[in-house]
Amino acid sequence: MEIREIKENKKQFLRLLLRADEQEDMIDRYLERGTMYALYDGECDPDRPVCECVVTDEGGGVLEIKNIATEPECQRRGYGRAMIDFLAAKYSGSCSVLQVGTGDSPLTIPFYVSCGFTRSHVVKNFFTDNYDHPIFECGIQLVDMVYLRRRL
User: Fold this and answer.
1) Is 81 helix (H, G, I), strand (E, B) or coil?
2) Of 62, 147, 122, nearest in space to 98 by CA
3) Cβ–Cβ contacts within 10 Å for residue 101, how many?
4) How far apart are alpha carbons 3 and 75 in whole angstroms?
5) What's the confidence (pLDDT) of residue 37?
6) Section 123-132 average pLDDT
């Protein structure tokens, strides 16, 4: 397993990023200002990343995961957790908090809690106010953005 920082041509990784944030103009808001990482593992596919992540420095010691996605056929193998652990180790000296905003979904919230995150706050109507179409996960329409935090 190898994690590489992606510094150029970030849009070439858009296909996987759209799995976690399905509206391209929303990704455009953070892609260039964020730091992007790609996780490669020959066991799944040696030629393309199996997990991608974009993080932004929000100031005040807060690093935010804006997008993290794993190839569907490679999910439930620890790649997302490995990426989060990588971020926590890499930024523990320069940031004090790793945060993530996500929909209130039975798929994502338990994953982040299992990675050491706790609920922080909610941004009401984030998905309905910022996306041009309804977003559904597990048959549930996402309305509010739930923020979770992990101390570094």
Assistant:
1) helix
2) 62
3) 17
4) 16
5) 98
6) 97
What tokens does 59 get? 């100031």
Instruction: Spell out where the chain has E strands.
Output: 2-6, 35-40, 51-59, 62-70, 97-103, 118-123, 135-137, 140-142, 145-151
- 43 pLDDT band, cuts 50/70/90, is confident
Distance CA 50, CA 77 (A): 10
Banded pLDDT at 133 (limits 50, 70, 90): very high
What is the separation of C-alpha 2 from the centre of its chain, rounded to a whole number of angstroms?
18
Task: State how far the Cα of 40 lies from the Cα of 68, in Å rounded to an integer.
Answer: 14
**What are residue 43's phi and psi, to 5 degrees?**
-65, -30
- For the whole model, what pTM was predicted? 0.94
Q: What is the pLDDT of residue 82?
A: 98
